[in-house]
Structure formats: structure tokens, C-alpha cells
Design a protein that fits this description.
The protein is an alpha+beta fold. It has 3 domains: about 1-195, no CATH class; about 255-340; about 345-525, 3-Layer(aba) Sandwich (Trna Endonuclease, Chain: A, domain 1), CATH 3.40.1350. Helices cover about 55% and strands about 15% of the residues. It contains 13 helices and 15 strands. The chain has a 5-stranded mixed sheet, with helices on both faces. A 4-stranded antiparallel sheet has the order 2-1-6-3. Strand 11 (about 420) and strand 12 form a beta hairpin. Helix 2 crosses helix 3 (about 75-85) and helix 2 (about 10-70) runs antiparallel to helix 6. About 20% of the residues are buried. Mean pLDDT is about 75; it is low at about 1-5.
């Protein structure tokens, strides 16, 4: 667009001249083709067809029209006139004389004026038109001709009016005045002319694009030439300055005073560098101490959580040992549930478990959660996921990564390692592959094999890499393809609702018959499905 806007007056004039030339040429060719269409349409095909059948058509029309006119049926007369309309229009008058001229003649009926007449018929046109006399037909009653009423008496006159344009120029002029009219060959005129106009615009547009590219190339060539000259001038100036500088240094090199000054400057630079090194070392030490304090705080929280779990378990054991016979069954169940409660490697996983299990949909049983689920049973290795969250429509593998700071990668997030960039740069550890995405994809593929073996239903499998709320995931983004997400803990429940809603719409359209969440859990655990 910039090239077209910055056209010179000469380029603009040349573009306009090319457009006018193409436009005139296309209109000329279209007019010639329309002339051929006119000749073929009127002078050959349709004219011969209508004139060959005109005698038969007139004989049939006079018989029908005489009958309907004698019966006084205006609708019948009009239907015959309209049905026979074409290159010839028809007019019925009240003239009952046999001479060519008929004084006081009035028009009774015409072919419908809404039909494509070249011009509205009048008495002046009828003076030059051919006509046939309409006569009263014999009256038949009971199969016998009634002789009491005279037959063959003139009752009107049928005029045949040519509806063919006099010449191509007349027809073309009328079409130009009403280009969208549907009379004769005018629709073909419009289609042919529009086709050639569109062709002219297309050729003009392509030619202008070609010339614009050429102008741009010429401008780029001139720009490169200008830049080259500037670069040469700068290089020459730099060489001249360097020559002067070297000359000046050679003149001053013999002076002892300048030698001492240079040594002092070098000594000052060394001292300044040592101070910078010391400040940098102190900064690194401070950052390490902050990391150590944060990790110590984290370990302290995890240790407190573990000790609380130990105390709760010891209390359940003591209650079981001290319970009476009547209450022993209840205490046994409480102890069994405490033993079966999941244990987590860190407080972050515990927080994820509490967030999901306390959600309303999990409480109602519409969502189910499995922790430390092995997606590679029957193999010589193990693949334990952190969490598997599911409902009747989809399964979400949640992989917890407790790393704070900016989540970054030196390359592609799909194919390179991931880093946690804060006070220190830490590589995000993964049990499978180069990064969490590889690990999540491996778990998803393994779970898909389990579903093929066990599940009578189809499921969509999604994966979520979950970081704490303190992490910055702006660089990695929230989507890793269609089925993998990156999120922080605070966004987990809304994200899960969105994923399950998307899966529900898909399953409703493709597989409307869905299992219960309990049946899905039994299938994943390898139990018998009800």
C-alpha cells in the first residue's frame, strides 16, 4: 500500500492510461460479442423458429380467440394472448370491417404489458402490423349446428406486432438505459460486458502489482546504493581518524610522564574491578541465603505436615487398641481409611489434593481423583502420575511442579529443557523426557493404551502442568497444543471445569451414552464394571 501511495505523478498517469486502455479494449470486445449475440438471437435461431410456426400459431390463435371473444371470456382471451407472446406481440381490436383501414378502431386486448415488450403497442403501430379477422364460430347445441345464429360474422381483429428491435444499435441503446432489464438478449449483454470488465480490472490489477514490485525493487536498489556510499564514507572517515590517533599516540609514546599516567589508570581500573567482583560475590551470597531460608521454610512446613499426619495416625492406632468389642469395627474402619489416605512428597501436592477434594463437584461425586496412579501396569517400569482427575466425559492428568520464579526455556518449550529463573536458574526435573511436556505426553500415551484395553467408552485425555501461584508462566503460555495446558494452582478448578465442559459438548455430539464417574473409577482401577 505504501508503494501505491508514494506514486509519482508520472507513475500515476501511466497507471491511469493503462486502466483506460484496458477498459476501452474490454468494452470494444464485449460490444462485438454482443453484436454477434444479437445477430444469432434475432436474425437466425429465434426468428426462423417463430416465423416458421407463425402461420400455424395464427390459425390456432384465431380459432381460440374467436371462441373466447364470442363467449365474452376476457380471461380466456388474455391467457391465449399471453401464452403466445414472444418475438411477436398480439393486439385485439373491435374492428369488424375487412378493409385495411378501420375508422374509430379501439384496442380491446393486448398481450400483458408486464411482458417484455420493446415498446407499448398503440393504434399508430397497428397501422403497419399484419392482422387476421376474428369471426364468430358456429354454435353447436346437442351435437347439432345451430343455424339460427349466423356463423362467420366478423367480431374483431387480431394484430400481430413485431417485438424484435429494429437494429443492434437500438437494442443496445435501450439496454444501456436499463442494463438490468430481462428482454430478449439483454441479459446476455450484461453478463458478457461484466465478464470483460472484471477481466479488465483483473489484468489491470495484476499489471499494477507487477509494476509496483518493479518500483519497489528499483527503490531498494537505490537505497542499497545510497547506504553503500554512506558506509564507504563512514569507513573512510574512521580510517582517517584512526590514522590521526595512531600518529598522535606515536608522538606521545616517548614521554615518560604519559607512561606513568597510563600505569596509574590501569591500577585504578584493577581496583574498581576488584570492588565490582566483591559486590557481585556479596549479592550471590545474599541470594543463596534467601534460597536457603525459603527452602528451610518449605521443609519446615512439610516436616510439620508429616508430623501432624504421624500424630493423627498414632491417635487412630491408640483408639483402635483401646476400643471395646462393640466399637472395634468402627475404629477399624477409621484406621483403615487413615492408612489408605494418600501421602505426598511435598506440601504443594498436599495442597493440590485438598483443593480438588474440597471442590463442590468432587464432594457431589461428579468428579473423582486418583493420586500416584501407575499408567504403565504390566511393564518392567513404573510411571506414577501425581493426580488423575476425571468425570464421565474426560480424564485430566495433573503433573505438579513446585518451582517458583519465571518459567523459561533456552529454546522451544516443546523440545528443550525448562528452567525456573529466580535468584538462581534451576532446571525443572522430569522423570521422562527433556521437560514436563514430554513427561505429560508420555503419561497420556500410556493411559491411552490402558483405556484401549479396559474401557468400553471413549474418553478425551487432557494434561495439566501445575505450578504454584508464585510462579510466572507468562512465557510458556497456557496452551501446549490442543490437549495440554499450563496453569497455576489458583486457576486449577476453573480450568478443569472448562475442560470438562468442552469434553461434554464433544461427547454429547459423538458418544451421547456416558458412564457414571464411579464406573470410570472402577475401570481405571481394573475392577469389574457394573
Amino acid at each position: 500500500m505504501r508503494n501505491f501511495v508514494s506514486l509519482s505523478r508520472r507513475d500515476l498517469a501511466m497507471s491511469l492510461a493503462r486502466f483506460v486502455l484496458l477498459l476501452v479494449f474490454s468494452l470494444f470486445v464485449a460490444t462485438e460479442l454482443n453484436h454477434d449475440t444479437y445477430s444469432d438471437f434475432y436474425s437466425k435461431r429465434l426468428f426462423r423458429l417463430h416465423t416458421a410456426d407463425l402461420g400455424t400459431l395464427a390459425a390456432q390463435m384465431t380459432t381460440k380467440l374467436s371462441f373466447f371473444l364470442d363467449q365474452g371470456s376476457a380471461e380466456g382471451v388474455q391467457s391465449v394472448l399471453d401464452a403466445s407472446f414472444g418475438l411477436f406481440g398480439f393486439v385485439i381490436t373491435d374492428c369488424k370491417g375487412l378493409d385495411r383501414e378501420c375508422q374509430g378502431e379501439k384496442i380491446l386486448f393486448t398481450s400483458d404489458l408486464s411482458l417484455p415488450w420493446q415498446q407499448t403497442p398503440d393504434l399508430r403501430m397497428l397501422a403497419k402490423a399484419s392482422f387476421a379477422t376474428l369471426r364468430r364460430p358456429p354454435v353447436v347445441k346437442g351435437g347439432v349446428v345451430n343455424r339460427s345464429e349466423p356463423a362467420g360474422e366478423p367480431i374483431g381483429r387480431l394484430y400481430v406486432v413485431s417485438n424484435v428491435p429494429k437494429s443492434f444499435s437500438d437494442d443496445y441503446t435501450l439496454w444501456l438505459l436499463a442494463p438490468f432489464s430481462d428482454i430478449g438478449a439483454r441479459r446476455v449483454y450484461l453478463r458478457t460486458t461484466l465478464t470483460f470488465l472484471m477481466g479488465a480490472f483483473t489484468v489491470w490489477g495484476l499489471s499494477e502489482f507487477y509494476f509496483a514490485v518493479r518500483r519497489k525493487q528499483r527503490q531498494q536498489l537505490l537505497q542499497r546504493e545510497y547506504e553503500l556510499k554512506q558506509s564507504v564514507n563512514r569507513q573512510m572517515k574512521q580510517l582517517a581518524e584512526k590514522d590521526a590517533q595512531i600518529t598522535r599516540l606515536n608522538e606521545e609514546s616517548g614521554r615518560q610522564y604519559e607512561a606513568y599516567v597510563e600505569k596509574i589508570r590501569a591500577l585504578n581500573l584493577m581496583i574498581r574491578n576488584e570492588e565490582e567482583y566483591r559486590e557481585l560475590a556479596e549479592q550471590i551470597i545474599a541470594e543463596l541465603e534467601q534460597d536457603r531460608e525459603r527452602e528451610a521454610s518449605q521443609f519446615s512446613e512439610e516436616l510439620t505436615s508429616v508430623r501432624q499426619d504421624m500424630e493423627r495416625l498414632q491417635l487412630k492406632i491408640r483408639d483402635f487398641e483401646e476400643s471395646t468389642t462393640l466399637k472395634r469395627e468402627d475404629s477399624y474402619r477409621a484406621l483403615e481409611e487413615a492408612v489408605r489416605a494418600p501421602s505426598f512428597s511435598n506440601a504443594f501436592e498436599q495442597k493440590i489434593f485438598e483443593t480438588i477434594t474440597s471442590s463442590p463437584l468432587t464432594v457431589k461425586g461428579e468428579w473423582r481423583l486418583l493420586s500416584n496412579y501407575d499408567v504403565a501396569p504390566g511393564r518392567n517400569y513404573r510411571q506414577f502420575t501425581d493426580f488423575v482427575l476425571f468425570n464421565k466425559d474426560a480424564i485430566i492428568i495433573v503433573e505438579a511442579k513446585y518451582y517458583v520464579g519465571l518459567i523459561d526455556s533456552p529454546g522451544d518449550f516443546l523440545n528443550d529443557i525448562w528452567l525456573s529463573v529466580g535468584a538462581q536458574r534451576k532446571k525443572i526435573d522430569c522423570l521422562w523426557g527433556e521437560n514436563p511436556y514430554h513427561q505429560l505426553n508420555e503419561y497420556s500415551m500410556s493411559l491411552m493404551k490402558i483405556l484401549k484395553q479396559r474401557s468400553p467408552w471413549t474418553f478425551q485425555i487432557f494434561g495439566v502442568i501445575l505450578f504454584p501461584d508464585e510462579a510466572d508462566i507468562s512465557k510458556v503460555g497456557e496452551h501446549l497444543g490442543k490437549f495440554y495446558r499450563v496453569a497455576r494452582l489458583g486457576d486449577l478448578l476453573p480450568l478443569a471445569e472448562s475442560i470438562f465442559a468442552e469434553a461434554h459438548r464433544f461427547q454429547t455430539a459423538k458418544n451421547p451414552k456416558r458412564p457414571r464417574a464411579e464406573q470410570v473409577e472402577n475401570m481405571l482401577r481394573g475392577r469389574k464394571i457394573d
